[in-house]
């Protein structure tokens, strides 16, 4: 039975809600103002050390079995299997073969996108080259341009301009013509619209975690994702909101500053067109586009995804 697509204003409201749930935009006032627990005395410090000890021991135990650890690749995973083995378990998985009938997989070249959206003005994250804090200071980096001009900029490559999930709500009306090229992923997701990412080779999202479970759907080009389990947090200089001061665990200069991040347990994965990557809440990740890339992210799962409630935002 075909469902009527939601209206554009409903889509924009839905995307704004999804962004709020991810709580990546931390310049917005926190919805739940729980003060960050600061270790004030030796009792608190000892409690933290004991928690880190337990996380390490549990990680070592999981490493005993490939059923319990590692990043698995699955082919056309059913909703039941996804729920029981990955969503409920809080375990990442790379899933292939779920997007084979999406027209976008063959259509979404830079030329096609530029022709389809043309001169419509869109919002993107700009002025990122040379800035370190473009995720932390998202608002400062919001820019606008005719879509065709934006595509020309990302085609040239680099990290300066990137259309990200934080631009989704604003861009919903302008980018609506692209919706027809996407398909549903009914096994895992409601029909809530995804959030679009468009960037060039070199676009980089620094190390952070999300406050929701998140499904990445790669459409065009390739992206290299590094996933790090929550058990490794003590090695990642977690000071600001959901971000790691390490920023990039492949950057020797950063590793010199944060040597404890060298030995971090990590899983590297390259996303190619048609791949889905499930990133559970709290898993650290950094993402680098290896070519012109388009991708959608979804948080509208069939199962509860409200872990952000009560996050001590600080
Ligand atoms: O693809 C990217 O650049 C970042 C995606 C991401 O980190 C996220 O959706 O949380």
UniProtKB/TrEMBL annotation:
SMART domains: JmjC (SM00558). It holds the Pfam family Cupin_8. SUPFAM superfamilies: Clavaminate synthase-like (SSF51197). Signal peptide: none annotated. Residues 161-314 form the JmjC domain. This is Cupin-like domain-containing protein. It comes from Sphingobium rhizovicinum.
């Amino acid at each position: 039975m075909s469902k009527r697509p939601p209206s554009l204003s409903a889509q924009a409201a839905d995307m704004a809600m999804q962004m709020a749930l991810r709580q990546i935009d931390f310049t917005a006032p926190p919805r739940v103002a729980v003060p960050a627990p600061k270790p004030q005395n030796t009792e608190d410090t000892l409690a933290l050390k004991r928690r880190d000890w337990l996380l390490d021991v549990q990680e070592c135990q999981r490493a005993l079995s490939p059923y319990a650890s590692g990043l698995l690749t699955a082919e056309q995973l059913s909703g039941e299997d996804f729920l029981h083995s990955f969503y409920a378990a809080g375990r990442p998985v790379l899933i292939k073969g779920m997007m084979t009938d999406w027209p976008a997989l063959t259509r979404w070249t830079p030329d096609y996108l530029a022709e389809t959206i043309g001169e419509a003005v869109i919002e993107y994250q700009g002025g990122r080259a040379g800035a370190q804090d473009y995720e932390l200071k998202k608002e400062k980096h919001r820019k606008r341009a005719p879509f065709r001009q934006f595509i020309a900029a990302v085609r040239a490559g680099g990290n300066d301009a990137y259309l990200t999930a934080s631009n989704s709500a604003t861009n919903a009306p302008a980018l609506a013509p692209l919706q027809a090229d996407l398909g549903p992923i009914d096994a895992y997701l409601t029909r809530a619209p995804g959030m679009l990412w468009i960037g060039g080779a070199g676009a980089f999202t620094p190390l952070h975690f999300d406050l929701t479970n998140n499904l990445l759907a790669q459409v065009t080009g390739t992206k290299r994702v590094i996933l790090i389990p929550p058990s490794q947090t003590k090695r990642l200089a977690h000071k600001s909101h959901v971000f790691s001061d390490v920023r990039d665990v492949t950057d020797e200069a950063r590793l010199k500053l944060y040597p404890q991040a060298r030995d971090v347990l990590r899983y590297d994965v390259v996303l190619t067109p048609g791949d889905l990557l499930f990133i559970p809440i709290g898993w650290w990740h950094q993402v680098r586009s290896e070519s012109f890339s388009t991708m959608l992210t979804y948080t509208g799962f069939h199962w509860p995804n409200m872990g952000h409630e009560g996050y001590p935002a600080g």
